[in-house]
């Protein structure tokens, strides 16, 4: 017992020693890797690739305080984005805008050659700063900068290309836009306002985005003067989002909860994925919500999803009982995009007591009744619905897929909405259709198995596997189980040679000649030229009696190469054979008609010529007597009496 206990203790100490040795060996390597990754500047020639052992963020560059870091941010476990991170909270403040994200692999690399570039050898460049600098720095305010030390100028900075976040003292001009992480919402500046826009229709451009929140400048401390330049926004450290034009006095102030309160925390404003603009304050351990542009959830553009109904102070529901509110939506995004111009089926949904959450920012038309408002939308394929107010007569036309509406107690406000066919069906109907589909599938599978068995039995009884056609042939046919004949052409006369018929001649050089009958075989052995015999196809084509060049002949040409079987290609080929045969027959008939076009007039000319030459053969004797010119004149000749007697005796 004591010996077993000693062995156990010994093994435990050996394991501890092995783990300690491994840690000592690996720790310097890990420490060196982190130190090398957190440099404070990048020079020309810098290159970095993603590390497969990193799970969230791989730091490449940091500021002097260590609060911000530039590196690879892992997205969806297999993709990466170049991002600036707030290190204490691991919150991304800026991301490089790319058309699509790069893959987290060793082939993807970030390098600096005057421009900061993300690329891989397969898809080339994902993103580039398009500069010619010699140094990259990250400032203490999270601004990524590319500098040209030879001229002491700033070439590029990330503050000019914000993603979805604004930080303190970052200018936001009218040429910029904040875009939410899902790409559905954006913030832009107008001539005298800040606006939030929604991209409800993914197929449209940015000019057709719907504005759902707008804040005009109050111009309390300063006024906006036309011609003095556009306005810009700035997040002030005193706790407000201000709009400025030229001077130091703001033309508008949106105060936060911590307005003019003492504190040294970091502030930021972010456009959230739900479309709300929120401000945050860093306390040293967490981010505190300090401001939000839209306080009521029902005023958000799509708080309850597509075809959702938001009840103020209550939960969400769907516009109709035929839909179930699941996963935060009533209709999937696949059924709520694009337009209805190419749709053949949709069903109409009507609901009373609804209104739009941002109707004050939408255009409207004044109509006399709900029926006229509905008919205007029904005849327009880009219209998804209308909301009509019976009291005011305002008709709001929705030219984008239906989003969340607000439920009100006023029954005079009615809505008419279009729903794509197949969207929003109840569970019973969907279950019934699934059951019918499964039953039909089972019947098809059983029928296919029975048909395959019968086909194999028939083929065994027949004794042969049938003939397999290569690609196409003349006069090909298919049996009921799929076998096909191989039809050959006679080498001499070009007629069809069916299986089991004809003669096959193999020459010494292994070339094969097939003949339809002994006549062609004998002419071949006598070395006769088929182009000189009138009964061959070669002679007829050479002398223009048959078509020689046509696109249908290319389909019939024999191709001695293996082809991978494709069921769709085979079905389309079999269908095309009939059409191509019909086209060829029509073209041959047209060719024959053109070839025989002058034959009738030629025959008429020859008949007229022959009639003119042999007219005396068709004239009646009476006509000859009436026209002496048609007969020879009679000549009287004197004869002797002896000659007359001899003639009479002969008669």
UniProtKB/TrEMBL annotation:
Family membership: Belongs to the eukaryotic ribosomal protein eL24 family.
Classification via CDD domains: Ribosomal_L24e_L24
Keyword Acetylation: no
GO MF terms held by the record: structural constituent of ribosome
InterPro entries assigned: Bulb-type_lectin_dom, Bulb-type_lectin_dom_sf, L24e/L24_sf, Pan_app, Ribosomal_eL24, Ribosomal_eL24-rel_N, Ribosomal_eL24_CS, S_locus_glycoprot_dom
BP GO terms, sorted: recognition of pollen; ribosomal large subunit biogenesis
CC annotations in GO: nucleolus
Domain Apple: 341-421
Database matches in Pfam families: B_lectin (PF01453), Ribosomal_L24e (PF01246), S_locus_glycop (PF00954)
SUPFAM superfamilies per record: alpha-D-mannose-specific plant lectins (SSF51110), Glucocorticoid receptor-like (DNA-binding domain) (SSF57716)
Residues annotated as domain Bulb-type lectin: 45-168
Domain of life per record: Eukaryota
Subcellular location per the Swiss-Prot or TrEMBL entry: Nucleus
PROSITE patterns per the UniProt record, alphabetical: BULB_LECTIN (PS50927), PAN (PS50948), RIBOSOMAL_L24E (PS01073)
Positions of transmembrane segments: 434-455
Protein name per Swiss-Prot or TrEMBL: Apple domain-containing protein
Keywords: Disulfide bond, Glycoprotein, Membrane, Nucleus, Ribosome biogenesis, Signal, Transmembrane, Transmembrane helix
């Amino acid at each position: 017992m004591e010996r077993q206990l000693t062995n156990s203790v010994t093994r435990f100490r050996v394991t501890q020693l092995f783990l300690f040795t491994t840690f000592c060996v690996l720790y310097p390597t890990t420490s060196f890797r982190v130190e090398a990754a957190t440099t404070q500047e990048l020079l020309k020639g810098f290159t970095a690739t993603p590390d497969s052992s990193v799970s969230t963020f791989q730091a490449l560059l940091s500021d002097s305080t260590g609060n911000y870091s530039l590196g690879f941010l892992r997205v969806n476990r297999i993709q990466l984005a170049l991002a600036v991170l707030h290190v204490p909270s691991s919150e991304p403040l800026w991301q490089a805008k790319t058309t699509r994200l790069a893959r987290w692999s060793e082939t993807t690399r970030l390098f600096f050659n005057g421009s900061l570039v993300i690329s891989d050898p397969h898809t080339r460049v994902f993103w580039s700063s398009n500069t010619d600098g010699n140094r990259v720095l990250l400032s203490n305010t999270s601004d990524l900068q590319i500098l040209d030390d030879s001229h002491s100028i700033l070439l590029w900075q990330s503050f000019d290309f914000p993603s979805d976040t604004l930080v303190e003292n970052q200018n936001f001009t009218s040429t910029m836009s904040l875009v939410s992480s899902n790409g559905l919402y954006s913030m832009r500046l107008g001539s005298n306002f800040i606006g939030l826009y929604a991209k409800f229709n993914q197929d449209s451009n940015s000019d057709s985005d719907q504005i759902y929140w707008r804040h005009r400048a109050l111009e309390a401390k300063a006024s906006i003067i036309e011609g003095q330049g556009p306005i810009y926004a700035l997040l002030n450290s005193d706790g407000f989002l201000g709009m400025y034009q030229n001077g130091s006095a703001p033309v508008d102030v949106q105060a936060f909860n911590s307005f003019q309160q003492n504190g040294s925390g970091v502030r930021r404003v972010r456009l959230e994925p739900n479309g709300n603009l929120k401000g945050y304050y860093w306390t040293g351990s967490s981010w505190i919500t300090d401001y939000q542009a839209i306080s009521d959830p029902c005023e958000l553009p799509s708080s309850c999803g597509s075809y959702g109904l938001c009840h103020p102070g209550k939960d969400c529901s769907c516009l109709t009982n035929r839909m179930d509110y699941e996963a935060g939506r009533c209709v999937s995004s696949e059924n709520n995009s694009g337009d209805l111009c190419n749709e053949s089926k949709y069903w109409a949904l009507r609901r009373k007591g609804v209104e739009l959450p941002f109707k004050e920012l939408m255009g409207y038309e004044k109509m006399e009744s709900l029926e006229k408002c509905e008919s205007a939308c029904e005849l327009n394929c880009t219209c998804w619905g209308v909301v009509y107010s019976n009291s005011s007569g305002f008709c709001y036309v929705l030219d984008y897929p239906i989003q969340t509406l607000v439920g009100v107690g006023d029954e005079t406000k009615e809505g008419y909405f279009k729903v794509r066919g197949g969207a929003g069906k109840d569970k019973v109907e969907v279950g019934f259709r699934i059951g019918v589909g499964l039953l039909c599938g089972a019947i098809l599978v059983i029928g296919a198995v029975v048909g395959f068995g019968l086909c194999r039995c028939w083929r065994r009884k027949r004794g042969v596997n049938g003939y397999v056609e290569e690609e196409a042939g003349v006069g090909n046919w298919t049996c009921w189980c799929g076998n096909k004949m191989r039809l050959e052409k006679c080498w001499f006369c070009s007629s069809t040679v069916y299986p089991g018929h004809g003669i096959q001649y193999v020459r010494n050089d292994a070339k094969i000649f097939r003949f339809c009958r002994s006549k062609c075989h004998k002419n071949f052995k006598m070395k006769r030229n088929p182009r000189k015999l009138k009964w061959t196809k070669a002679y007829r084509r050479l002398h223009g009696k048959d078509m020689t060049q046509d696109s249908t002949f290319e389909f019939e040409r024999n191709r001695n190469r293996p082809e991978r079987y494709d069921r769709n290609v085979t079905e389309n080929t079999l269908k095309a054979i009939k059409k191509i045969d019909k086209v060829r027959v029509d073209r041959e008939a047209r060719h024959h008609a053109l070839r025989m076009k002058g034959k009738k007039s030629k025959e008429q000319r020859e008949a007229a010529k022959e009639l003119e030459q042999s007219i005396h053969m068709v004239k009646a004797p009476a006509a000859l007597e009436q026209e002496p010119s048609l007969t020879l004149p009679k000549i009287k000749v004197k004869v002797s009496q002896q000659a007359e007697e001899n003639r009479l005796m002969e008669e």
